[in-house]
Amino acid sequence: MSRRRGSGSIYQLPSCKTWTIQFYRKGKCVKEATGLTDYQAARQQLNRRQHEVAQGTYVGPKLEQVRVDELGELVLRDYRINRRKSQDDLRARWDLHLEPFFGHLRAMDVSSTLIDAYVDGRLGQDAAPATINREMSALKRMFRLGYYATPPLVTRLPRFPKLEENNVREGFAEDG
Q1: What is the enclosing helix (H) or strand (E) of 10?
Q2: Residue 131: CA atoms inside 13 Å, Cβ hemisphere, count?
Q3: Checking DSSP bridges between strand 28-33 and strand 9-12, what pairing results, if any?
Q4: Distance CA 124, CA 119 (A)
Q5: Which of 68, 87, 112, 155 could form a Cys-Cys staple with 102, CB 3.0–4.6 A?
Q6: Each residue of 2-27: b (16+ CB within 10 Å) or e?
Q7: Nearest Cα to 52, choosing from 105, 8, 101?
Q8: Which residues are registered as beta bridge partners of 33?
Q9: Tens of pLDDT along 133-148?
Q10: 81-107: average pLDDT
C-alpha cells in the first residue's frame, strides 16, 4: 500500500516477518522495529509516533531506556564534584530506601502516583516526615539533573510531595 509523501513508511526487511517503520524527526530519519507482524498495527504505531513528533512528546528509544539507578549515579557524582558534606547521608538514603524501590524502574515510569505510594509505604514503616522529605529531595535532585543534562535523560518531572515537619525542640538549656 502506498502512503502520502512525507508520511513515513512501513516495510519488512528481507527474511523478517515483523514490520519496521520509518519517519522523520527534526530532519533526521528515524527507523524503529515494531515487533509486529500485522500491517495495520504497524501503521497505527507509525501514526502514533508521527503524532508524538508533531506534538513534541516523542522521546526516542534512548530516553525510554534511562533507569532511575543511572540518575542515582548522577546525583552521587554531583555531590562528589561539589564536595557536599552529606555525601555519606545521601549514599545511605539511596542504598537503603530509594534504590530498592525505584532503582529497577525506567525513569519515564516514575509517576506522582508511584512516588505517593512510596511515601505512604515509608510512613507505614514509621519513618519521620523529615526523613521522607530528605529522600524526596534527593529523588527530585536526581530527576532535575537528568532533565538539565545535555542531552536530556528525562523529559518530564513528576510532582514530589513535601510533608509537614514537626521537629521543634522542646525545653531550654539553663546556665548552672
Answers
A1: strand 9-12
A2: 15
A3: unpaired
A4: 9
A5: 68
A6: eeeeeebebeeeeeeeebbbebeeee
A7: 8
A8: 20
A9: 999 999 999 999 999 9
A10: 93
Percent of the chain with pLDDT over 70: 94
Distance CA(134)–CA(3), nearest Å, equals: 53
For residue 20, the cross-strand partners are: 11, 33
Pair 65, 106: CB distance under 8 Å? yes
Per the listing, cell 510532582 goes with 159
Residue 155: predicted pLDDT:
82
- Between CA 29 and CA 59 the distance in angstroms is 14
Place of cell 557536599: 84
Residue (of 56, 5, 4, 41) closest to 21 by Cα position: 41
Tell me the three cell numbers of residue 22: 520509518
